[in-house]
Specification:
Bound molecules: flavin mononucleotide
Number of helices: 15
Number of domains: 2
CATH class of the largest domain: Alpha Beta
Strand content: 5-15%
Shape: globular
Oligomer: single chain
Distance between the termini: 47 Å
CATH superfamily of the largest domain: Aldolase class I
Length: 339
């Protein structure tokens, strides 16, 4: 279990904020499959305080996904504090401050990972948000801006002293983007020196790696990002492994049903035209590694309507199921033979 401030989460696994991906449908899917906590993508504090409708859409939530962590970003302590209050009024169970985003359009405004270069501003932001924040407060950081400034521990201590309830570390420098490997020793080092819970993040692409990160770093929680896209079962599998059980891979019918459910939720949330576009991207991930998936992808790339997309998916899975024997290996082999 993971406790963040006054909140007891049902387990130690956290879905990472992923811009463009962790919308309400995605969050409901991973929550149902075992994630202990889900997070919105980063939301502009300025957009919230200015009442921008487009920004407010990111706060849309549903009881099935609770507790919900809402991540905000911005360079200004007062604006961040007001945004946190707005998010709480709209139902946020946790406020998370983004201090790790390396995207140019974010850092050039003085937000995201830029804050790792200005510890005083980082401190003012966390303090200002803490003063008004009636729910648990967390902060997500990277190791530092660049390898000559490994500030994770220094910033983490500031964040703890300012009253945050937990910290998440993605141990890469902002200048690295996603290149190289996440340096889990930074998570271990931070955990050693902090009293508040430390959530480790970075390169957990399989359920066993979630357990391995916990073992290697003694972190309190593990946050999974890219590893859950196309494989939301990773949470359930990690929980199974943590209980000493074997991780159960999803069968074809389970996979098909989940994709359909994801599509249904997306359509409800954003309407058919936009949902079809998002689905095309997700299908690439959901079918990765399945037999003949590249040929299947070829069939749906030009498809615009939801109905045609569904029927392409249906016939792909029907073929797979026909080919399927008892194990995945046999499925792969028999389908290759059939193709
Ligand atoms: C497409 C994408 C969007 C992301 N959006 C956010 C975001 O909105 N807020 C944030 O703090 N991190 C964001 N991240 C970083 C992830 O939360 C996470 O820290 C990173 O992907 C490393 O974890 P992973 O190796 O498990 O994916 C994003 C990453 C990706 C790939």
């Amino acid at each position: 279990m993971l406790r963040i401030g006054s909140l007891n989460l049902k387990n130690w696994l956290v879905m990472a904020p992923l811009a463009g991906i962790t919308n309400l449908p995605f969050r409901i899917i991973v929550k149902n499959l075992g994630a202990g906590l889900v997070t919105t993508e980063m939301i502009s504090a300025k957009g919230l305080t200015l009442g921008h409708q487009r920004t407010f859409k990111y706060l849309k939530s549903h009881p099935d996904e609770r507790p919900l962590s809402v991540q905000i970003f911005g360079p200004d302590p007062d604006v961040m504090a007001r945004a946190a209050q707005i998010a709480i009024e709209k139902g946020a169970d946790i406020i998370d401050i983004n201090m790790g985003c390396p995207a140019r359009k974010v850092v050039k405004t003085g937000s995201g990972a830029h804050l790792l270069r200005v510890p005083q501003t980082a401190k003012e932001i966390v303090s200002a948000v803490r003063r008004v924040c009636s729910v648990p407060l967390t902060v997500k950081i990277r190791t530092g801006w660049s390898p000559d400034q490994p500030v994770a521990l220094e910033i983490a201590r500031i964040i703890e002293d300012c009253g945050a309830d937990a910290i998440t570390i993605h141990p890469r420098f902002a200048t690295q983007g996603f290149s190289g490997q996440a340096d889990w020793s930074i998570i271990a080092k931070t955990k050693e020196h902090l009293k508040i819970p430390v959530i480790g993040n970075g390169d957990v692409f399989s359920p066993s790696l979630a357990l391995e990160m916990k073992r290697q770093t003694a972190c309190d929680g593990v946050m999974i990002g890219r590893g859950a896209v196309g494989n939301p079962w990773i949470f359930m599998q990690a929980l199974e492994m943590a209980q000493g059980l074997e991780a159960t891979p999803p069968g074809l019918s389970e996979r098909r049903a989940l994709i359909m459910e994801h599509f249904r939720l997306l359509t409800l949330d954003m309407g058919e035209p936009r949902a079809s576009k998002v689905m095309r991207g997700l299908l690439l991930r959901y079918t990765k590694g399945l037999p003949n998936s590249s040929r299947f992808r070829g069939t749906f790339t030009g498809i615009k309507s939801l109905e045609s997309l569904m029927s392409a998916l249906d016939s792909y899975f029907t073929t797979l199921e026909k080919c399927s024997n008892s194990s995945n290996v046999q499925t792969t082999r028999s389908c290759r033979l059939a193709s």
